[in-house]
């Protein structure tokens, strides 16, 4: 597999399919609304202004695309009950952001902001796991627009809605708050989303 590939811990489980999931070979396409257009001349990735982080940082597409890359071997589990095993991701490790901005100790959660107002919340410890990255490629090819091109977050240990598509920035928070899919009126998905605990919906809490 190569020494430069980070292997997600869940791929080493004796049973890699979480409860009530089914394995798929295809990669299903699921999202709400239209696929957003991408213009490399205007695209930016921002660390949102906040007393919880300094300095405020914004990358152009050219700057973001030149950041050091990492590769991750991981499985993906969707809350709609499919699991796709043996994915090779390539992109910018979430930990790379720590070289460009410093969150304060009071920052305990992250809100991931995406195109069209989509968002999802994560504990900061999950966000900065070794196998988490902003993916630009999947299985050696650029992401397709349907799967989040140009950048999607990948958090292998959580359900795939946490691996948000079309990411444009992150916000550090002291307290957890629901993102788009976690809000009751939009579906009420779980605040964390551990597939091994079947944390699918808010009423699981």
Describe this structure in words.
- With 205 residues, this protein is mainly beta.
- The protein has helices at residues 61-65, 124-127; strands spanning 5-7, 22-23, 44-47, 53-54, 57-60, 70-77, 82-93, 102-103, 109-114, 119-123, 133-138, 141-142, 152-154, 167-173.
- The chain has one domain: Oxidoreductase, molybdopterin-binding domain (Sulfite Oxidase, Chain A, domain 2), CATH 3.90.420.
- The protein is 4% helix and 32% strand.
- The strands form 3 sheets. Strands 1, 2, 6, 7, 11, 12 and 13 form a 7-stranded mixed beta sheet that branches. A 5-stranded mixed beta sheet has the order 5-3-14-9-10. A two-stranded antiparallel ribbon has the order 4-8.
Total discrete domains: 1
Shape verdict: globular
Tell me how many strands there are. 14
State the secondary-structure class: mainly beta
Write down the overall mean pLDDT. Answer: 94
Strand content: 25-35%
- Helix/strand order, N-terminal first: EEEEEHEEEEEHEEEE
Helix content: under 10%
**Which fold does the CATH topology refer to?**
Sulfite Oxidase, Chain A, domain 2
Write down the CATH class: Alpha Beta
The oligomeric state of the chains shown is single chain
- Number of helical elements: 2
What name goes with the CATH superfamily? Oxidoreductase, molybdopterin-binding domain
Largest sheet: 7 strands, mixed
Q: What's the end-to-end separation, in Å?
A: 38 Å
From the alpha carbons, calculate the radius of gyration and give it in angstroms: 16 Å
**pLDDT < 50 runs, ≥5 residues:** none
């Amino acid at each position: 597999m190569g020494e430069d590939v980070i292997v997600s811990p869940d791929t080493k489980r004796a049973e890699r399919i979480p409860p009530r999931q089914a394995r798929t070979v295809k990669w299903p396409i699921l999202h709400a609304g239209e696929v957003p257009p991408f213009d490399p001349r205007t695209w930016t990735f921002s660390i949102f202004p906040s007393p919880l982080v300094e300095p405020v940082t914004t990358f152009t597409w050219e700057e973001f695309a030149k950041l050091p890359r990492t590769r991750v071997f991981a499985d993906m589990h969707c809350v709609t009950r499919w699991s796709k095993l043996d994915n090779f991701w390539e992109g910018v490790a979430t930990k790379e952001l720590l070289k460009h901005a410093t969150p304060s100790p009071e920052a305990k959660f992250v809100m991931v902001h995406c195109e069209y107002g989509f968002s999802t919340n994560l504990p900061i410890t999950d966000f900065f796991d070794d196998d988490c990255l902003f993916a630009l490629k999947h299985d050696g090819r650029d992401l397709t627009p349907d799967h989040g091109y140009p950048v999607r977050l990948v958090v292998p240990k959580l359900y795939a809605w946490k691996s948000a598509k079309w990411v444009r920035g992150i916000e550090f928070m002291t307290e957890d708050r629901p993102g788009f899919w976690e809000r009751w009126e939009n579906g009420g998905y779980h605040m964390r989303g551990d597939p091994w605990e079947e944390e699918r919906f808010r009423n699981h809490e």
